[in-house]
Amino acid sequence: MSATASAVRKPFPASYRKTAVLVGVLFLSATATFAIGSALLTSYFSGESGQTSTLATGVLFEAISAIAVAAIGVLMWPIFRRYSAGLGGGYAALRIGEALMIISAGIYMLTTKNDFAHYDAFIYVFTASAGLIFSYLLYVSGLIPRFLAVLGLIAYISLAIGIPVSLIGDVKLDAGWGLIFVAAGAVFELVVPLLLIFKGFSVPKSEPRDDRGSWLAEKPVAVSV
């Protein structure tokens, strides 16, 4: 008797459709809460609103954004590791790192009452790096239409270019001509989440389904012959 490896296809324990919806909602939530938090922090440090409650609320909104960002990385890991365990793990790690950077900046500003100059640029280092991996894996997997994945690659390359420009030239990425570096990303991070919420992931032809429409995974097992 000898053992040979055979592939037995079994359903995934969780629905990719539910994951797609949750990831889409988290993307939109992260974007909205970070924007609100950033606006409140700008209002506080510009002197428009000197109330401590404004600062605290701004930090709170950005902390909520951080939690959503980290959750996206964790949720996408089981999917991305099917295509590249290394890149999938890297994506999750970068998203968690991004969340920690947001929270750390918030704690600093809340405890010292001082502005963290260009803190958004440091956060965007993680955003751009993770976004490039995200878009690349979506492209090679075919989980979304590839033209959208290409848009994502362009968007995060543009953001990566904008980071040193904002630091060296004192250009704001959320105002004026600095918006050219984030415009494509804004479109990508609006369209793709809505696509995931209403359509879910596209199932590549190479991915089998079971009779219920669930995606199947290959698990090597030993069988006797």
Q: Would you mind describing this structure in some detail?
A:
With 225 residues, the protein is mainly alpha-helical. It is 67% helix and 8% strand. It has a two-stranded antiparallel sheet with strand order 1-2.
Termini separation (Å)?
6 Å
- Overall shape: globular
N-to-C order of helices and strands: EHHHHHHE
- Class of secondary structure makeup: mainly alpha
- The number of helical runs is 6
Biggest sheet strand order reads 1-2
Strand segment tally: 2
Biggest sheet: strands, sense, closure?
Answer: 2 strands, antiparallel
Indicate the proportion of strand residues: 5-15%
Q: Helical content, roughly?
A: 55-70%
Any low-confidence stretches, pLDDT <50, length ≥5?
A: 1-14, 208-225
Integer average pLDDT: 85
Radius of gyration: 20 Å
Task: Please render the helix and strand layout as text.
Blueprint: E1 3-11, H1 16-46, H2 52-80, H3 85-112, H4 119-141, H5 146-169, H6 183-198, E2 216-224
Antiparallel strand pairs: 1-2
Helix pairs in contact: 1-2, 1-6, 2-3, 3-4, 4-5, 5-6
Offer a few descriptive terms.
2 strands, disordered N terminus, 8% strand, mainly alpha, 225 residues, globular, two-stranded antiparallel ribbon
